[in-house]
Amino acid sequence: MAGTREGAIAAAWKLFDDGTYLAHLRRLVAVPTESQMPERLPDLRRYCAETLPSIMDGMGFSFEVLENPNAGRGPAMLATRMEEPSLPTVLVYGHGDVVRGLAGHWSEARNPWAVTEAGQRWYGRGTVDNKGQHLIAIEALRAVLAERGRLGFNAKVFVETGEEVGSPGLRAMLRQHKDKVAADVFIGLDGPRQTTFMPELKLGARGAVAFDLIVRLRDGAHHSGHWGGVLSDPGFILAHALSTIVTPKGRIRVPGWLPAHVPESVRQACRDIVFEEIPNLPEADPEWGEPGLTKSEKIFAWTSVIVLAFLTGHPDAPTNAVQPEARARLQVRHTVDVSGESIIPALRAHLDAEGFPMVEIVPVMERDMFTASRTDPSDPWVTMLAGSLARTANRQPNVVPNSSGSNPSDIFMEELKAPVIWMPNSYAGCNQHGPDEHALAPLLREGLGLMAGIWWDIGAGEAPRR
User: Fold this and answer.
1) What does pTM read for this prediction?
2) Fold of 5-205+372-462
3) For the segment 31-49, what is each residue's pLDDT rounded down to a tens digit?
4) Residue 275: enclosing H or E segment and its boundaries?
């Protein structure tokens, strides 16, 4: 069989139009893979060992469940189709776990474990994050196989079940199975894109460092009438310390937190990014943040810091007393151009220089900590995939230097030693992680065609040489 690129794309669209994609999505969503809940471990295993392999049956893949080195955490599924060792190998990534279903909180009494169609919206937990998205990659592979009779490259589909809890054990799993997961490029489908009207590539993620700032002055609160005005107030001290971190308009003042240099390929990618205004979502405050930067540069090429929480006393039941302590939790997001390990030492030096040695900095060791990563926008794989998307969509895609949210790009980039590239197929208003999570049917259908074009082009020999 020879077939054509157009035929493969048409075959992918047909899988959507004839209900095959929806039927398979219903089966995936029906498995309650809430990775935050230990009692769901059997469901995570079922997703990897039974549900996904049964959907991919007949596609010429071998299947293996990779156990998680972290006890009590979900496994991963690795499906492998090796056509010829000399051909390029693509690792396709997805995550089968979801956040809590929040049954009872969805509008119109919708069931989070079923796909409910309402016009162009398909509701259900995991429809976009991430079951509906890795299913796009799988069904597009099916379409190319049907049209060409082979892929023309080697494919490995890796679906983990711990992304929503920070991918515990993922790095150790990749190291343990290094040869099995080895690939020339990582292609993941996850997250929202900037617009509903143009395709997109994302090339990594900003890192995040979270920490508490604490001012502890004494044991116990003391009567405000007797002690107000003579005892130091930790709330005011912490507020003044916070005011040294950013200006009144949000410009960061901590030396070492800002990138000394942003590569020109990243700046150019940011200049070309197109945004879409989504109803009911806030607009950017143009005067907040680093002066002279565009919205895209502030999000994708610069450092940001926010106060996640600020507490002194008992806000739910204030008492007339000078409080003994105040604390705030902050989160810094940064690109690969700033070392995550330098964030807290730089802040320590800054606070000391500003006269606040009494402010403690306590790192938060949880999912708020992850490493920055970025594939260069000029990488040959990025150029090739962007060209494929442009050919299918008849317009250039957004090429986003790194995601504004979190993902495990750094782990795969470091362990695979390969470019990491994401192709999101959702939009900013999809309600992922909340009640009423939904996919837009036109984006799912479009994604099937876009991925079929990508798989066809890789198999046609357009992939960069090793």
Assistant:
1) 0.91
2) Aminopeptidase (3.40.630)
3) 999 999 999 999 999 999 9
4) none
